Structures are given as C-alpha cells and as structure tokens.
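Input:
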Amino acid sequence: MYLTKEEEQILNGEAGETLRQAIGILVTLGDIYGADRLIPIKSAQIAGVSYKTIGDAGLEWISDLQGKVKVPAILNPAGMDLEDWKRLRISPEFAEKQKLIVQAYEKIGIRCECTCTPYTLEGFNVGYGDHLAWSESSAVSYANSVLGARTNREGGPSALSAALLGKTANYGFHLDENRVPEISIEVEYPLQGSDYGALGYVAGKLVGSKVPVFHLRNSPGADELKALGAAMAASGAVALYHVEGVTPEIRMHGFEEPAEKISIERKQLEEVYESRKKACKEPELITIGCPHCSAAELEKVAKLLEGKMVSKEFWIFTSRELASRYPEYVRTIEKSGAKVVCDTCMVVSPATNSYSYVMVNSGKALAYVPGMCGAEAVYGSMETCVEEAVGRTAKKAGDSY
Amino acid sequence: MSRKQSAGQQRRQVIPIKLKGRTISRGCAKGEVLLSRDPISFLGSVDPKTGVVIEENHALEGKSIKGKVLVFPHGKGSTVGSYVMYQLKKNGAAPVAIINLETEPIVAVGAIISEIPLVDMLERNPYEVLSNGDLVLVDGNKGYIELIKQETDTAENRAS
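Output:
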C-alpha cells in the first residue's frame, strides 16, 4: 500500500501514539483487503456506543483514547435516552457506564448525538460519490445505496481511526468494481409501507453479502428504502443495493443485468407478517423507529395516535435533533401515553430485555430483537403497531396488508 | 503418524527455523506456543480477567492463553472481540504474541489496539512446524517468526 511521506511519519509514531495506532489499523485493514492507498473521507459514524454491546472492554479502550477527530463524526445509538434514561427503567449502574462511554467519545471531539440516521441531521450532509467511514449497518446501506456515497461497513475502532486521521483505506465499496450488482431480484407485485422491511428481511437471507439489484413494480420513497436496506443488512450482510429506476448510481450509470436472478413471491413476504398469527401471546411492548424515525414517520405516527390512548407500552425511537425539531409531533405522540425515546433503540437498549414479546415494524428489529434482547419479535405495519398499542385489534392478528 | 514423524524429523534438522510472514501488528515478543485448531471469538469465549478459554467444546477449553504465543487459524464472531483483546491486555491476561493462518479484521484491530505482535500468512503452515510448548519469537516489526527451542516432540504436544 502506497503511503505519502506524511502518512509514513504518522505510522512511525512522529505524530503521537494515538495516530500511530489509528493509521496502523487503517494500513493493516488496507493490506488485508488489498487497498492501494488512503483516501480522504467527509465524515465518520462510529459504532460501539451502547454499554449493552461493548461492555467494560469497550469502555476501557475508549476511555484511554487521546487526540481529536479531523472530520465530522457522530455516534451510533447508545443503550439509553441520554437525558431521560429513568423513564425506560434503565438501572443507575448501566446509566453511569453509558455516560462514561459517551463522555469519552465527546472528549476526542465526536458529536455526541447517537443515531443510526446521521444523514437526516444538520451539518452531516452526504453527497453523491462522497467517501465516508460509517459503521452502523443500516446507515452504511442508506449512504451507499440511496445517497450514492461510498463506505465500507467499518467496525468501531476502524471508523474511529478514520475519524482521527480524516482518511480511510481505499478498498471494498470505495471502488467502482465492487459496486456492480451481482444478483437480480424481481418482485412482480406492488409493495407499500412495511412491505419493504419484510422484503429486505427475506432478501437479506437469500443474498448474504452480495450486491443485489431490485426490479420493483413501484418506486419506493426514502423511508421505504431505509427500511429495505436496514432489514437486508441485518438478516444478511448487504451494504449496497440498487433499485432500478430509483437509486442514484443505477440511474446515472446503468449496470449490466447480473447473470444470477431470483424472484421473491408475495407468499414469502406474507410469512414475515404471519409470525403474528402463529404467536399465542399478546405483544407486551410495541416499538417503532428502527432505524430512527424520520420527520415523515414521526408525523405519520402522530397522526395515527391523535386523540387516542395507548393501552400498552409503545416506544417510538428517533434522533434527538429530529425530536427537538418537531416538538408538535412529539407532544401528540406522548399525549397518547406512547413514549418518544431519543439516542437509543429497541435493539441496543437493555430496556427491551425485560419484555418477552415485542411487536416491531422493522425487518432489522425483527432480525435482532430475539438474539439481542431475548424476546420474541413479531412484525406488523406501522398502522398495525398503532392499533395493537391502542388495543383495538387484539382479535385481528396478522392482518397487516 | 508418519506425517507427524516426518514433520518432527524436519524440525530437528533445522533449528532455529525462521519463517517469513505478513505483519498485522507491530512489536516483538517471545513465548511458549499454544496451538488451537479452532478459530477464536474473544467475546464470550475467553474470560477477560484470566485469559482462560471458557467456550464449551473449544479445542482450548479450560486452558489459559495468558503469556502464550497463541496460534489459531483466524477470529470469528462479534466485533466486540477487538475490545476484549484490549481488556485482556490491560488485565495482564493477553497472549504475548499471535500467529494466524490468515487474520480477519476483528483480531487484526484487536491486536493493534492491544499492542500484541501478530504475524500471519507464514511461508509454511505453522501447524506443521510448531508444537505446544515450543519457544518462539514473533517479530511483528520485520514480519517473521522464529522457532528458537523445541519442546520434546511428542504427539501430545501437537494441536488436536
């Protein structure tokens, strides 16, 4: 791997220990994956924030870091709402550790907003072709696929190293040749709303880490693409996908149709919804906002909940910035007894672990809640989730379309 | 049996053996070899306080990796494993060096942040050259390992 004179000096420790280690990580990963050089990045998003996932091991490493990041950097969701953690009954011991983690990141200049949708925030714009070092799998998928930016799925330490240097190694999804579709997925019926999360859940299992190109009957919007990508990155390891006629890269360049083709039938999506029918218990907790709700999704939940009262725990996750930008939606939602929770999500918060049966409108949460929270998860549309929370559809199980 | 014998005979002929490899993590350390045929996930498989392997049915179950030159094919499992390696190091329970067949990013990053010398992709298969208890130098600065002193070459010392 070619290094500039300045990079060589950093690698030899002339810019201090933190940067020596940071460039060591990037150069080694670059060597493993055959990178030719380091390239500048526009921003970084750093995973490894929730105390539930990284534990004392991660806390120790982060606490020892020195220096300052060189590009805008932001965090993945933490294990709790950093301001109002008591509401979801987080233990004081957990809260204490979680705060130490966030403070340690803040010390090195990272913006302490914890979200999996950094692309919705002020000052975190992503343009077509921008190189990034992002970590959270749904954010990586959205940046690559929907925004046409370029990022690998970085681990916590490598994203942080990239932030400290303002560079990353040039391999994987930074290169044109790795962005070409490898498998074609045909869906021959119209989709709407939560169907995209269900499609992603099914497709991810089928394609693994390949780059799929979808041929769909209709044009999904930003939130639908977000749900599709998040689910595929969780049930599979998809970091980039294309949708013919919709996503920017295929619209600007066009790609040859891959030789490998599959189609996904409606029945396969119905099976995702049917988990609700098969379950014998009632969901005790309903959650929305994986990935974090956009402004449009907050508005939709607010409209669905307006004038109603929930009879079950109902948590809506979003970023702190969007929650404070749209206080009227938050007020309407919370008037119903539902809770708008920031900085965290149902997957990485220990709060979910005290429930045994959770309803979600996210293919990603459906994939992760059982393993990460020890709870059974069922899938429904946003409308079904709201109906379940207000308690009118207990008998209409699985009626999601 | 015959393979083991011939490997042993070869080994006896050419001590010290120096094998070139690829540098993953810099630094230089000497220690006793502990071989694992199984991949290692540091998260959940190794007790970060003691360095004892706690994963059920793992080739190294019940053994301590503390202070050893740990030889394993590659890592597996959660990315949190990198941080666990750091925790092992801070607790004084980390291996002094690592040799892999081919390192993947979790272990690579873990070794770098923990300053554990790591060399992989040796010019010869380490499982054919090294035995448990051998004294080995791992030079992550220059990218080689050197077998300095052989443990008595018995079948029991070979990785199962």
